[in-house]
């Protein structure tokens, strides 16, 4: 027997696929945006995600599974604050205050502190310094749309090459808040959709919604242990795909004395995470992986010398595989 929850998930999945099909059919009636207009629009969307007050249910749909979460975002005298609650699976809650986010693990009574991110929906830019118009063309679609009960303008972002996916955005006409974001492959098939299922914006959002039911005073707190590095100075030769730039290079200290280096590459919208760790020790638990999909993210892993190179991202698997094949490690000598 089909439960209400199962029916709801299937309807959400169908809505995502149908929405993608409608957008593609209307693409011929689209109006292209110039590079400056495109940059201004995307920065306005990013600013709205950071400055507007909003609260609602967000759904993640990868075409097969749907996950839901509750998000509250408020800007007041204390700055930018946020509460994100995962509604499916193991309990998780994220409490953000400006530059610091606390990840609450109720089952383990642990709090993990880490730097806040700017790209989480309804934010979309990994960096406002990267010129997105070098990697995508943007058009405004003529058909009207409604998401979470609000009127929005639809836009299509078409990649200039096959190293990245395309996107469909639904932007609130009144506030420029991003209401829906779809990632589409080269055939126009849905890779991932993130959207508000319901949302309140502005004065309707009360700061009391930020309050967590968990008393974390006695919980163990773990601060993310990381420091910046330069992988090239350590002998790594990583050929960035065209349009991608490194926006973060750090070493993270993991449990069991593991250390994992990470480089984050982005073209402004898409991101690729490059993880490097020694095969010896805890790295022995890993194995080569030609390619697999985890939700809306692809993964590729290969061994280079005595290190594992793991690549993940919401980009075509071929992009990750090519990057893995071209990456080299040149051991440093005393003369370097």
Summary?
The chain is mostly beta strands and 336 residues long.
Structure notes:
- The protein is mainly beta.
- It folds into two domains: 207 residues, outer membrane lipoprotein receptor (LolB), chain A, CATH 2.50.20.10; 105 residues, Phosphorylase Kinase, domain 1, CATH 3.30.200.
- Helices cover 15% and strands 44% of the residues.
- Strand 3 and strand 4 form a beta hairpin.
Number of strands: 23
Distance between the termini: 67 Å
Strand content: 35-45%
| Computed Rg | 21 Å
Topology overview:
Elements: H1 4-25, E1 31-32, H2 35-51, E2 54-61, E3 66-76, E4 79-86, E5 93-97, E6 100-105, E7 110-115, E8 136-140, E9 145-147, E10 150-159, E11 166-172, E12 178-184, E13 190-201, E14 220-223, E15 226-228, E16 236-237, E17 245-253, E18 259-266, E19 271-278, E20 289-294, E21 297-304, E22 307-313, H3 317-326, E23 328-329
Parallel strand pairs: 7-14
Antiparallel strand pairs: 1-8, 2-3, 2-13, 3-4, 4-5, 5-6, 6-7, 8-10, 9-10, 10-11, 11-12, 12-13, 15-17, 16-23, 17-18, 18-19, 19-22, 20-21, 21-22
């Amino acid at each position: 027997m089909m439960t209400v929850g199962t029916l709801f998930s299937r309807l959400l999945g169908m809505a995502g696929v149908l929405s993608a099909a409608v957008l593609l059919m209307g693409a011929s009636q689209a109006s292209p945006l110039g590079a400056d207009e495109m940059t201004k629009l995307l920065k306005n969307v990013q600013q709205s995600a950071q400055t507007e007050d909003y609260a609602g249910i967000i759904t993640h749909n990868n075409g097969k599974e749907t996950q839901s979460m509750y998000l509250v975002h408020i800007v007041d005298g204390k700055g930018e604050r946020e509460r994100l609650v995962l509604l499916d699976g193991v309990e998780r809650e994220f409490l953000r205050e400006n530059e610091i986010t606390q990840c609450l693990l109720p089952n383990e009574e642990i709090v993990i502190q880490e730097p806040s991110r700017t790209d989480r929906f309804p934010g979309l830019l990994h960096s406002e310094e990267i010129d997105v118009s070098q990697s995508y063309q943007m058009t405004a679609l003529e058909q009207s749309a409604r998401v979470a009960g609000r009127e929005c303008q639809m836009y299509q972002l078409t990649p200039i090459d096959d190293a990245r996916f395309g996107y469909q955005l639904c932007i609130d006409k009144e506030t420029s808040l991003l209401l829906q974001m779809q990632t589409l492959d080269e055939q126009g098939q849905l890779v991932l959709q993130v959207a508000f299922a319901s949302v309140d914006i502005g004065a309707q959002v009360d700061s009391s919604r930020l309050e967590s039911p968990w008393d974390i005073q006695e919980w163990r707190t773990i601060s993310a242990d990381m420091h910046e590095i330069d992988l090239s100075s350590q002998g790594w030769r990583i050929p960035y795909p065209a349009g991608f730039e490194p926006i973060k290079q750090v070493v993270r200290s993991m449990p069991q004395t593991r250390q994992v280096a990470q480089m984050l590459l982005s073209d402004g919208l898409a991101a690729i995470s490059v993880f490097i760790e020694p095969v010896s020790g805890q790295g022995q638990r890993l194995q080569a992986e030609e390619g697999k999909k985890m939700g809306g993210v692809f993964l590729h892993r290969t061994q280079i010398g005595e290190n594992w190179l793991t690549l993940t991202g919401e980009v075509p698997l071929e992009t990750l595989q090519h990057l893995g094949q071209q990456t080299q490690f040149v051991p440093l000598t005393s003369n370097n």
